[in-house]
Amino acid sequence: MSETNTNQREPGSDRDPILEAENHQQAQRAPLSLKVRILRRLAWLGRLTRHQLWFFLIMMGACWGVIFESFRAHSWRRTVRYEFGVTLNSVIGGGLIATLFAGTLTGVAAVSQTIYWLGFAGLAKMTGSILVNVVVREIAPILVGILLLGRNGMLSVTELGLLTTGGQIRSFQAQGLDPFLLLVMPRTLAFTVGGFTLGILFSFAALLTGYIISRISGVITNPVWTFFYDVVTAMSGADYIIIPLKFIVVGFVVGVGGCLTGLTATNEDNLRTLLPRGFSRGMLIVMAVSVLFSLDF
Amino acid sequence: METRNVGPVLELNKAIPSFEESGLPPVPFSMRLMPGECAVVEARDASRATIFADLCSGLVPLNDGAVKFMGLDWTELHDREVNALRGRIGRITRRPSWTDFLGTHMGIMLQQLHHTTRDVNDVVAEASRLSEQFGLPGLPVLRPAMLSDADLLRASCVRAFMGRPHLLLLEDPLEASPADLEDAFLSAITTARDKGAGIIWLVRSNAVGQRYWQGVTSRWRLADDGLVAVRMG
């Protein structure tokens, strides 16, 4: 500290000349008008909201971007088709056994128990509608969403996160390869198709296993065709739209969420921060979709 | 998108890069590269050389001035046009650019497959020919992580010279390369120049590639005060 500076403030004095000057300047400023104060508050509120909701907002934009780009023939270049094919193979081919296994377990644990207890309570006629509403419409999308997230969603988070932090995404851009077009769009659409396919297979496996267990244990004596006919006739017209739509939307949002979590990684991120973030976001997304569909329909 | 086939292939016109975004000094960069020319830019700092190549590719925001490639200002183009133009740039970079979920062969051919409608067999044939030219036994199909650094460098050269690039941004591959790569590299540069490509060869020191210095049309130094022309001869 120079001698001049030390002389500005006397030792032991309570007065701070810098603070005092600042206070003086503030006091001299004209009072803010009401309009300016309101605008400032609104700006602060907007900043806070955007900061809290930025991922949600990015996701909304990306969802629209994927839908918009997917309808443009020019977007479907062979590299994009290749990525779509590889991801689709990974999602459906890789997840098939796990999905069928989960469906079988659900059939044993939920479907057969439902059939048993409804029969026990004399409500066997409601078996079809309850299985459709509980297993196919509520449980299946959530479990398939979790399987998609765990098997392929987390893989996308990791791959794209490492590409982003490692600089490969920048290299893609330098080659004129748009990461959104090359990676996000085909992967999201592959997840969408995969969500629908695995969801239907899961539901079928669960119902079939439930029927087999119930038949073996003697709870029901109907042939399998009658059982499935009961389930199908218990479905309303809206169910034929909502159930597939739920599978499709779950696959879509898990795909977008996983890709975006990876692409929005910063240099400070690593696997220890990326994976928990990706998983918690994915779970929230799956649950939110499930709840939204339950509320609206 | 109307591209220009006459005039400079790359033109930096008092381009002042954003310091916050790039780390390059916020001073005017001016340079003009005609088709078939080869400019050597000496940059001691490797990361700065990469950012300079980014600047030429329109990846660095500017505070002022313009960077034009084939007569088109990067900042005035839409995303699709920008990407299409970047598809005409071949690049060897020190920045990680290989992805493990694609095989090396896909990494090499990705740019051509994405930006052109060339027959896949043609692309594969060209990639195989260039791979052999650069000393690889054929088109590498292993994952990049399974290749040695020297082979990855050769694969980077193959990728950069694929197709018919109008501009080559080469962050010196000869610096730590096997001796046999030099001949192939210089030969590829000559061929590319004959086809009208402009070349920016970023080197860390003048000691590298001295055999080719006679063929160089201009020399520059990337310094704190921007791009400084170095007297030839």
From TrEMBL, chain A:
Keyword Transmembrane helix among record annotations: yes
Domain of life according to the entry: Bacteria
UniProt KW keywords: Membrane, Transmembrane, Transmembrane helix
Record GO terms (molecular function): phospholipid transporter activity
GO-annotated cellular components: ATP-binding cassette (ABC) transporter complex
Membrane-crossing residue ranges in chain numbering: 53-71, 91-118, 189-212, 248-266
InterPro entries, alphabetized: Permease_MalE
Name this polypeptide is given: ABC transporter
Record organism: Acetobacter orientalis
Lineage: Bacteria, Pseudomonadati, Pseudomonadota, Alphaproteobacteria, Acetobacterales
From TrEMBL, chain B:
Lineage: Bacteria, Pseudomonadati, Pseudomonadota, Alphaproteobacteria, Acetobacterales
Protein's name according to its UniProt entry: ABC transporter
Claim: Nucleotide-binding is one of the keywords in the record: yes
Keywords on record: ATP-binding, Nucleotide-binding
Species, as recorded: Acetobacter orientalis
SUPFAM superfamilies for this protein: P-loop containing nucleoside triphosphate hydrolases
Gene Ontology MF terms: ATP binding
InterPro entries: P-loop_NTPase (IPR027417)
